[in-house]
Amino acid sequence: MTRIDFYLLTSDQPQTRLAYACRLAHKAWAQGHRVYLHCADPAQAEELDQLLWSFKPDAFLPHALHSEHPDEAVVCGTGDDPTPHNDLLINLAQTTPGFFSRFTRLAEIVVEHDDIRVPARERFRFYRDRGYPLKSHQIRTAG
């Protein structure tokens, strides 16, 4: 059964969410995990793809857009088929991905902004009502 972690950031800035997704993806990749970053739309996937190149100047994170290189260890995607990924899913969309249960872990990153927080609460209830193991992490952020 998929383990689901909610990362609750103290920031109210939606951009902080993307920066934290980069940090989380880098940490997971460094531990040998494969990461699928599920984005709300192609524009967000492109933005995240660019951010992954620059979020940490002293580190390298091999990544790609799923539509271009689906076999890369870390990919940004928007579609309904994250093949071949099934390890860590980082959900940046405002809906529950229909394929989330094929992943070992799911990370939901939430900031204190109603456009993000309210749908995240709905997803939390959705997962809880279906018996998924949930864990919340309070994360202090600068912005």
Automatic annotation (TrEMBL):
Q: Which residues form a coiled coil?
A: none
- Write down the superkingdom of origin: Bacteria
InterPro entries named among the record's database cross-references = DNA_pol3_chi, PolIII_chi_sf
Give a Pfam family name.
Answer: DNA_pol3_chi
For this UniProt entry, the molecular function terms from Gene Ontology, in alphabetical order, are: DNA binding; DNA-directed DNA polymerase activity
One biological process GO term for this chain?
positive regulation of DNA-templated DNA replication initiation
Q: What PANTHER family does the database record attribute to this sequence?
A: DNA POLYMERASE III SUBUNIT CHI (PTHR38767)
Protein name as annotated: DNA polymerase III, chi subunit
